[in-house]
Amino acid sequence: MESFSVRGDRALGPGDQDKLGFREVAKRIAMSLVDRASEDGLVVGLEGAWGSGKSSLLFLVGDELTRLPTAARPTVINFRPWLIGNRDALITSLFSELSNQLDQVALAAGDATPISIAKAKKAGKALRSFMSALSKAGGMVEVAGDVAGIGAVKFAGKGLKAAGELAGTQAPPQLSDLKDRLVASLRELGHRFVVTIDDVDRLEPGEILEILRLVRSVVDLPNVIYLLCYDSEVLAHSIQAAASVQNGRAFLEKIIQLTVMVPKPEAFQLRQWFAEALQQIGTAKNEDERERLRQVIDQEGGRQLRTPRSVVRALDSIRFFWPPLREIDADLADLVWLQLIKDGNSALYRWIEEYCGTAAALSLGTARVDEAEKSQQLGALEAAAGERVFDDHLYRHSFSAQLAGVTPNFSKSGPAFQLFERVDDRTRDEAIQSRRLASPDHYRLYFAMATPSHALTQSDFNVLWEALATSPDQTATVLLAFQRQNAAGTLTKADLMIERIKGGAYELLDGKQCRNLLMALANSMDEAFRLRPFDGFAFSSQWDRALPLVGLLLGRLKPAQRNIATRDMFAEGEAIGWLTFVFRHEIFAHGRFGDRRRHDSDWVLATEQQLDDAIRIMLSRYKAMALKDIQQSPRPLSLLFAWQQAGDEKGPRQLLGTHGKSDEGLLQTLEGLTSQINTSNRGIVTVLSRENIGPFLDYEEAVKRVKALAKKPKFKGAATKIMKLIDEGKQF
Questions:
Q1: Hey, which end of the chain has fewer CB within 10 Å, N or C?
Q2: Rounded to whole angstroms, how far apart are CA atoms 511 and 185?
Q3: What does the alpha-carbon distance between residue 178 and residue 334 come to, in Å, rounded to a whole number?
Q4: 468 — alpha (psi -120 to 50), left (phi > 0) or beta?
Q5: 683 vs 361: CA distance, rounded Å
Q6: What's the CA gap between 38 and 671, in Å, rounded?
Q7: Residue 71 belongs to what H/E stretch?
Q8: Nearest to 613 by CA among 563, 651, 647, 572
Q9: Does the CA dihedral 657-663-669-675 come out positive or negative?
């Protein structure tokens, strides 16, 4: 199997395989550069769009030049101008490369070549003399060499400076005479130099102009051939910007004497390359997946694999995503389809990502999509895909086959697709079992190598739905099991399940399931709090999330059933703390306590009769509770206030007063009346305040007794702790 290392967008290099048959093209270009190019020098353009394989072809041309027989073999100089600084540095670097190569030619001269050592040395001397004069006695060359930061250039610069200083004692020859000598010596040498310059179009416009001027004027020398690699459209635009000309292409034609177009690969070549490389990355699990993979490569590959770069990028994406997906037996055909679209049309990829998320929520029963939204999404799809893309009915069919709830429309009128159509259970379950992109449990793996953000699976919903059809106890057991499982951050699966049901899934429940869920909440929410406690300042706690669900579930019942369910919930529910939370909300919402009656849309109990029943039941339950039971509830103080606010002001005072007659009972009673204050500098502080004690005990008398108890050895520890809480309460 192939390594899963991402290759990256780079040209061919030594040892790489030529997938597109560029080698033969490179051979012909190399032979032409040696056999047919003029001795007067030449500037050749290797043209092709970005991603067409220009750099790879350039590498192959250079490689073929080095394979020629020694007598015909030119010297290849790979000049990379983006590593250089200013104009002077460009000149210095190019001349220095040429000078170094002339020295190498001199070293290699002998019986094996027609070049004599004398001719090579003569050409080298002429080049250095011209460089020295061009750089005004060499000073500028040294600076340019330092700026370039390249050892060879820096050395050459210093040597030229020294030569310039020696030449300063006599009248220097004219620059034109020095170039004539250089031209003559290079012509006499009879050795070809091929200078390759890649990615000219990636330079800044000003830098591009300098390179073109350099090769066409300053270093326009015999037997020196320049092979420039670029995208003509990009280069022409940059020339217009830098040279302030109207026609950048016409300007370019004055510089480039000959152009060679990068051969455009056949579409089937690109697909074949992709398919062969893909087979080394992963294989289909069965015949169905293999057939779908073939169709994806033909259909989507035919649209998206347009250049060698697009093939490399798509393969790299698959190399990156496939290993973790392979471990869970995900679907290779789905991944390939999605990655081809991502690299070819990012807008369409984003549409698919959004659609899959909404379709998954629909499958889980946690979202609704109306006709207006369907129409809007269809318009967004057509805009992202591009005009008339889906006119091809075969492509329309293959596209719809990848996504859940997308049905193609082949009639002459109407939209191309129906979106968010109902998916039957068998199709959905097959997608889940095969971990397909269409699976509501697995779709996000294909986008982020992670489970869906809702962290709930169809299996989770099936378990809960089965419990809802069975009994309240079984439902409570499932909810508490979910409460023990982390989902995202501080949220549990129970948190998310409540949100999903509240978000729309409740509409799928029948009357029995609604009643079972109401009773399950009434029985389990205190235990859920104990499993994952939250402070009193939480405004998005699980209790808060479950509160509106009560109203939604009751609303699904007929009026008579609703009243019965309300009475059963408050009378039989074991979660007295959470029931008190719901109860207090309704007392305030209906305006039974406090001075602000809320809009009935904020009511959980839809009628006054339901609230009257709840008040009667809860008061009866409170009166029957021992203080120990109250203090063991999640929020004892809230329960005591609810008792009073429901209309029985004396009941809690009598209970606490009786229990507080003994010294030990007083300390126990006060410990249950603490509350929390959220401070700006100290965070959450636990206190005993007058507001908490006063409604149930004589505050002054209680404080006096606690101070006295703090002096008694038997109660000193507990009383001192209580006094600290009271002192904290005085500060707020």
A1: N
A2: 101
A3: 67
A4: alpha
A5: 38
A6: 102
A7: none
A8: 563
A9: positive
How many residues appear in the chain? 732
Q: Tokens standing for 578?
A: 């959470």
pLDDT at 145 over 60: no
Are 226 and 43 a contacting pair, CB within 8 Å? yes
**Residue 662 DSSP label:** S
Contact yes or no for 217/87 (Cβ under 8 A): no
What is the three-class DSSP state of 42? strand
> What tokens does 276 get?
């062969």
- Whether 398 and 300 have beta carbons less than 8 Å apart is answered as yes
Residue 232: closest CA among 47, 406, 36:
47
Distance separating alpha carbons of residues 41 and 183, to the nearest angstrom = 10
Q: For residue 628, what are the contacts with CB-CB under 8 A and spacing of at least 6? A: none
User: Residue 225: which region, alpha, beta or left (left: phi > 0; alpha: psi -120 to 50)?
Assistant: beta
How far apart CA 209 and CA 216 sit, in angstroms, is 11
Confidence of residue 539 (pLDDT cuts 50, 70, 90): low
Using CA atoms, how far residue 70 sits from 74, 112, 191, in Å, is 8, 8, 11
- Tokens representing 46 are 């290797």
- Residue 213: enclosing H or E segment and its boundaries? helix 205-213
Q: Which of 23, 56, 17, 50 is nearest to 277 (CA)?
A: 17
Cα separation of 615 and 586, whole Å?
10
Q: At what angle do helices 54-66 and 22-35 cross, to 10 degrees?
A: 60
DSSP-assigned states of every residue in 279-331: HHH---SSHHHHHHHHHHHHHHHHHH--SHHHHHHHHHHHHHHHHHHHHTT--
Report d(CA 479, CA 473) in Å as an integer: 10
**Residue 228, class by beta-carbon neighbours within 10 Å (0-12 exposed, 13-18 middle, 19+ buried)?**
buried
Question: ∠ CA 475-480-484 to the nearest 5 degrees?
Answer: 150
Mean per-residue pLDDT, 534-541: 69
**Residues 637, 645: Cα–Cα separation, whole Å:** 12
Neighbours of 26 (CB within 10 A): 22
Distance separating alpha carbons of residues 259 and 252, to the nearest angstrom: 11
Strand segments, DSSP code E, in 187-300 are 193-197, 224-230, 258-261
Provide the pLDDT for residue 367.
72
3-state secondary structure of 1: coil
- Per DSSP, 4 falls in state -
> What six digits make up the tokens of 168?
């300063």
User: In this structure, which amino acid lies at residue 151?
Assistant: G
Q: How far apart are CA 296 and CA 332, in angstroms?
A: 10
CA-CA distance, 93 to 103, in Å (whole number)? 15
Distances (CA, A) of 283 to 342, 370, 429, 477: 21, 40, 23, 43
- In angstroms, the Cα distances linking 676 to 437, 537, 699, 702, 724 are 48, 8, 18, 20, 14
Tell me the pairing of strands 417-418 and 193-197.
unpaired
Cα(440)–Cα(249) distance, integer angstroms? 53
Between CA 433 and CA 423 the distance in angstroms is: 15
Give kind and range of the element (H or E) at residue 564: helix 559-572
Look up residue 625 and give its amino acid.
Answer: M
| Minimum mean pLDDT range among 170-184, 292-306, 355-369, 607-621 | 170-184
According to DSSP, the residues that pair with 318 across neighbouring strands are none
Both tokens assigned to 349: 């990829």
Angle between helices 139-148 and 151-167 (to 10 degrees): 170
- Burial tier of 247 (Cβ tally within 10 Å: 0-12, 13-18, 19+): exposed
**Three-class SS state of 465:** helix
What are the pLDDT digits (tens) for 673-709?
Answer: 988 877 667 777 788 899 999 999 999 999 999 999 9
